[in-house]
Amino acid sequence: MFSKACEYGIKATIYIAVKSMHQERVSLKEIAEEVDSPVAFTAKILQSLARHGIIDSQKGPTGGFQIQESKIDAITLHQIVHAIDGDNIFNGCGLGLKQCDASKPCPVHDKFVGIRDNLKSMLHNTSLYELATGLDIGLTHLKR
């Protein structure tokens, strides 16, 4: 459903949030290793998240990535998805056709509208805090 970049971005943001709740910054290499993503690809994803104000980046020997603890509950899954994939998931055709809208619907257009609305609601109503604290077995979930 989400692009690979978005999947890595969600996992990376959750990892950074968990570490930030323990007042720890994490390095690019550590994040890439934790989410099982190539370092260069992870760097591009993290740049996008930082540009959208979701994560903070600090350069230097004591640098790394973190999220202000006060922001963790305010960040939604929708913000993370939007920062990486934009709104394509909400606007594209369910079958991937170039021309599909209410006036020229594809065979699943009307069914997909409801699914899309439910997805949008879930993304808007799921906080990063909820995701980060919902990992009851630990961070090993992120590599799946």
Automatic annotation (TrEMBL):
It comes from the Bacteria. GO terms for molecular function: DNA-binding transcription factor activity. GO terms for cellular component: cytosol. PROSITE patterns: HTH_RRF2_1, HTH_RRF2_2. InterPro entries: TR_Rrf2-type_CS (IPR030489), Tscrpt_reg_Rrf2 (IPR000944), WH-like_DNA-bd_sf (IPR036388), WH_DNA-bd_sf (IPR036390). PANTHER family: HTH-TYPE TRANSCRIPTIONAL REGULATOR YWGB-RELATED, WINGED HELIX-TURN-HELIX TRANSCRIPTIONAL REGULATOR, RRF2 FAMILY. This is Rrf2 family transcriptional regulator. The lineage of its organism: Bacteria, Pseudomonadati, Bacteroidota, Flavobacteriia, Flavobacteriales.
